[in-house]
Specification:
Shape of chain A: globular
Largest sheet of chain A: 6 strands, mixed
Largest sheet of chain C: 4 strands, parallel
Number of helices of chain A: 4
Distance between the termini of chain C: 58 Å
Number of strands of chain C: 4
CATH class of the domain at 64-189 in chain C: Alpha Beta
CATH class of the domain at 3-94 in chain A: Alpha Beta
Order of helices and strands of chain C: HHHEHEHEHEH
Radius of gyration of chain C: 30 Å
Oligomer: heterotrimer
Order of helices and strands of chain A: EHHEEHEEEEHE
Structural class of chain A: alpha/beta
Bound molecules: iron/sulfur cluster
Helix content of chain A: 10-25%
Strand order of the largest sheet of chain C: 1-2-3-4
Number of strands of chain A: 8
Number of helices of chain C: 7
Chains: A alpha/beta (about 150), B alpha+beta (about 375), C alpha/beta (about 200)
Strand content of chain C: 5-15%
């Protein structure tokens, strides 16, 4: 059985310098500030006891007031999992650091989120639309999206 | 005198016999060798994630069918598991076994297509494909028996399955399972030591173990690279912890290993099926769920080992009848992340084989 | 006329008339009538069949309809099911699925059409040589099906190409597709090549 780590368990193992990046602890996830996302992710990946080497998936949710990004991590070595979340309140040009340099698996998923949710990933090697064509108006998965037709 | 050469671009797709649907690749070639590859997605992007937000939970089950349409049962299983986790719905034991039976039959059917179309891409035009379809039809007959559809079943429900199997199902399944190892052995005999297959797949399209993990590959693609990771064992769902089976893995991570892993997995599925039939309890198959079903506010993620990899659903509920967010962790889209690395440096013909060996279905890639 | 009284002809008159006819025919028939096909050489003689141009053309067209590859989504698998050994579409001379539109007569639109794909389908159709036909297979092909209303789905192929036969179902079973193909053949059979059809 994959052991799902609680937010507090993972937070307890974080370095002091990174602890400032924690925005909240939930029983099933760890909420971090978006500026710290990359550093915390890098730490979680490399810390021997945690070793989250496999990124299961990334997704984004539009809560109208803010976007929430959900990263689901698994360690194939220790067989435990962790969910980290981050938020972004800017609706006009939401920007989040990209994690492609840590997990290649994020590449297409971040492009998908950019296409459908309109969130920009800073540091992504090829940030462009993936499913819809260039010139498509809006980002369909946003709650305020309306189809032009 | 040095010969002056120039790079040129070849466009493959979106409608190309070897792209298994509508997928496009832009290959930059230096002579015969591919030096850059850009996959282009989205030709089948139907907006399922958005449409699902405007349908009730139950109405979304048919949508999941239409994602990976070669393995509909697995998609349904993953979705209903996510919603059951969200709402805390119990599933009767018999229904769990029926789900496992359907999912494993589906795995065999899907792998048959994968192997058949790989052979097709290798130039064995049609013959292996027709063999595979012959066997697949027998499995489709079984599905037809339980739910009346051949391709998109809409069979699973929250809290069980839509109806119990008919009386003639189990004898037919037993008969099929008796003959099936023979069929697989027959293909293997025709293909495994085939000179052409070996020459075209051994050492081609290698996905190293490290890259496989970092690019989040899953399913047979990950296992062929030597990673022993199968959700059925690592994070057992349904009743998989009651069965005895192995996880076949490869070592080289090339096209041949991916082919071997699929063949070996079919044997394992037969093992699971035999045990499931033996243990199949009697009883009811569907727990009552309110008609106007509203899960509590919250979110849930459930994943299964689908034929093509780890398929997951992430559902966010705001307490209404419709999901607030319906996200699919598409195994195939993520498996394609490393496509570029696997193909660059090889010839165009190898690109087709490598692409075929990943086993894709555009319905799930683009959604 | 009263029986037994007054004949129109005298007793011998009819017989004489008949005799004359016989004599005349005998006179005319001294020579052998030549075989009308005698101008044909031996080789040709066994190979000629007379029919109308339409019937001949339509027969040729409907017995070897080659489909082009245009299988975007799920319905494609039911098409392949129809093409594979069990339903065996080659009974109708259709098993050759062409990758090149220039060699094909029929487009079976098996799957959802998205706006991103639509220009390609249009181009494919334009490249097919006349005469050409389209079968819209599945609910998606007819109206967008379950995906009608999505921001990226074309609500039916008939927005892009003219459709001859609609096959409903999601997906249609291979039997339904075969029935659709029979209807198309019926349609081709009635086609007139040289007469302006009444509007
Ligand atoms: S009609 Fe149904 S089966 Fe056919 S392409 Fe559309 S959704 Fe798929």
């Amino acid at each position: 059985m994959t052991l799902a780590l609680a937010g507090s368990e993972a937070a307890a193992r974080l370095d002091k310098s990174l602890a400032a990046g924690i925005a909240g602890l939930n029983p099933d996830s760890l909420l971090v500030k978006s500026e710290f996302l990359f550093d915390i992710a890098a730490f979680l990946k490399d810390e021997p006891g945690l070793n989250f080497n496999y990124l299961v998936h990334i997704t984004a949710i539009d809560y109208c007031d803010y976007f929430e990004l959900v990263y689901h991590l698994v360690s194939l070595k220790h067989n435990h999992s962790l969910v980290i979340k981050t938020r972004c309140t800017d609706r006009k040009t939401p920007t989040i650091p990209s994690v492609v340099s840590l997990w290649r698996g994020a590449e297409l998923q971040e492009r998908e989120i950019f296409d459908l949710m309109g969130i920009n990933f800073e540091g992504h090697p090829n940030m462009k639309r993936i499913f819809l064509w260039e010139g498509f108006q809006g980002h369909p998965l946003r709650k305020d999206f309306t189809d032009g037709s | 005198m040095a010969l002056k050469t120039e790079l040129f671009v070849i466009n493959l797709g979106p409608l190309h016999p070897s792209t298994h649907g509508v997928f496009r690749m832009l290959a930059t070639m230096d002579g015969e060798v591919i030096v850059e590859l850009e996959p282009v997605f989205g030709y089948l992007h139907r907006g399922i994630e958005k449409l699902a937000e405007n349908r009730t939970y139950k109405q979304n089950i048919p949508f999941t069918d239409r994602m990976d349409y070669i393995a509909s049962m697995s998609n349904e299983l993953s979705y209903v598991m996510a919603v059951e986790k969200l709402a805390g719905i119990q599933v009767p034991e018999r229904a769990e076994y029926l789900r496992v039976i359907m999912a494993e039959l589906q795995r065999i059917a899907s792998h048959l297509i994968a192997v058949g179309s790989l052979a097709n891409d290798l130039g064995a035009f049609q013959t292996p494909f027709l063999y595979m379809f012959r066997e697949r039809e027998r499995i489709l007959d079984l599905f037809d028996m339980v739910c009346g559809q051949r391709l998109l079943y809409n069979y699973m429900r929250f809290g069980g399955v839509s109806h119990d199997i008919p009386d003639e199902f189990l004898p037919a399944l037993k008969k099929l399972l008796k003959h099936f190892p023979g069929f697989i052995a027959e293909y293997d005999q025709l293909l495994a030591d085939n000179e052409i297959l070996l020459a075209r797949t051994k050492g081609i399209g290698v996905l190293p173990k490290k890259l496989a993990i970092s690019s989040s590959a899953s399913g047979p693609v990950l296992r062929a690279s030597g990673v022993k990771w199968d959700i059925r064992k690592a994070d057992p769902y349904s009743v998989y912890d009651r069965f005895d089976f192995d996880i076949p893995t490869g070592s080289a991570g090339d096209c041949y290993d991916r082919y071997r892993v699929r063949i070996a997995e079919m044997y394992q599925s037969i093992r699971i099926l035999n045990q499931a039939i033996e243990q199949l309890p009697s009883g009811n198959v569907l727990n009552k769920v309110p008609l106007r079903f509203r899960p509590p506010v919250g979110e849930a993620f459930a994943h299964i080992e689908a034929p093509k990899g780890e398929l997951g659903f992430y559902i966010v509920s705001d307490g209404s009848e419709k999901p607030y967010r319906f996200h699919v962790r598409s195994s195939i889209l993520i498996n394609l992340t490393a496509l570029r690395d696997m193909i660059i440096g090889w010839k165009l013909a190898d690109a087709i084989v490598t692409f075929g060996s990943i086993d894709i279905c555009l319905g799930e890639v683009d959604r | 006329m009263e029986v037994g009284k007054g004949h129109v002809y005298s007793g011998a008159e009819l017989d004489i008339h008949e005799g004359k006819m016989i004599e005349e025919l005998k006179e005319r028939s001294r020579d052998i009538i030549p075989d009308p096909d005698s101008w044909l050489t031996d080789e040709l003689r066994q190979n000629i069949l007379l029919t109308t141009v339409d019937a001949a053309l339509n027969w040729a067209r409907r017995t070897a309809i080659w489909p082009v590859i245009s299988f975007p989504a799920c319905c494609a698998f039911e098409f392949m099911g129809a093409a594979a050994s069990r339903f065996d579409i080659s009974r109708f001379g259709m098993e050759i699925v062409r990758a090149s539109p220039r060699q094909a007569d029929l487009m079976i639109t098996a799957g959802t059409l998205t706006w991103k794909m639509a220009p390609q389908i249009k181009r494919l159709y334009d490249q097919m040589a006349e005469p050409k036909w389209v079968i819209a297979m599945g609910a998606c092909g007819i109206s967008g099906g379950v995906f009608k209303g999505s921001y990226s789905v074309v609500p039916g192929y008939n927005h892009i190409v003219p459709v001859d036969v609609y096959v409903p179902g999601c997906p249609p079973r291979p039997e339904a597709l075969l029935y659709g193909i029979q209807m198309l053949r019926e349609k081709i059979k009635r086609r007139k090549s040289f007469v302006e059809e009444k509007k």
